[in-house]
Amino acid sequence: MSPITRGYSPATVEQLQASDFTLQRPTTSLPSRLLLASIEGGAVEEVVQVFSPQAVAADATVADVIDDGGVFLIQHPANGDDAAAVKQEVGDRAYIVSVGPYDAALVWADPFFEGDKRSYNIYWSDGTYDFSVIAGLDTPEESLTFAMSLYC
């Protein structure tokens, strides 16, 4: 598995604002450890915020962060990755929940490797941006609270 930084560059909030990207920041007690972006020709294609109770090593993988109880918040310009699309793709494994005023799909994901922690993934769109929360938290409620903090 590749490090989480592969294909991304470190970013700053100011850099994203200069590219007309409105970064959504959650209200959480988990420390923000990384802000990564994929930027092509000055346009922001995707932003990944990494929150973790522990420092995140430069060679850490998604599985490492999830196993440590960390959370990824992924945001990119809307392209149809909303709750309905996820529900259609994964069927009954997705539960439709509310994140703020939006429908979201909550999925208990398969582990990356046998014995790894399973993440709770939440997907939704506000029409301008599509969002994903990939959470190594203990319960779906904690994961949903994290996502809802964007709107509270």
On the 0 to 100 scale, the average pLDDT is: 93
Low-confidence stretches: none
Share of helix, binned: 10-25%
Number of strands: 8
The DSSP helix count reads 4
- What's the main sheet like? 8 strands, antiparallel
How much of the polypeptide forms β-strand, as a percent range? 25-35%
Short description:
By secondary structure, this protein is of the alpha+beta class. It is 19% helix and 35% strand. It has one domain (9-148): Protein Transport Mog1p, Chain A.
Protein described:
With 152 residues, the protein is of the alpha+beta class. The protein has one domain: Protein Transport Mog1p, Chain A. 19% of the residues lie in helices and 35% in strands. The protein is built from 4 helices and 8 strands; from the N terminus they run E-H-E-E-H-E-H-E-E-E-E-H. It has helices at residues 13-18, 62-67, 83-90, 140-148; strands at residues 9-10, 32-40, 43-51, 71-77, 94-99, 102-108, 120-125, 129-135. The protein has an 8-stranded antiparallel beta sheet, with helices on both faces. Strand 5 and strand 6 (102-108) form a beta hairpin. The chain is globular, with a radius of gyration of 15 Å.
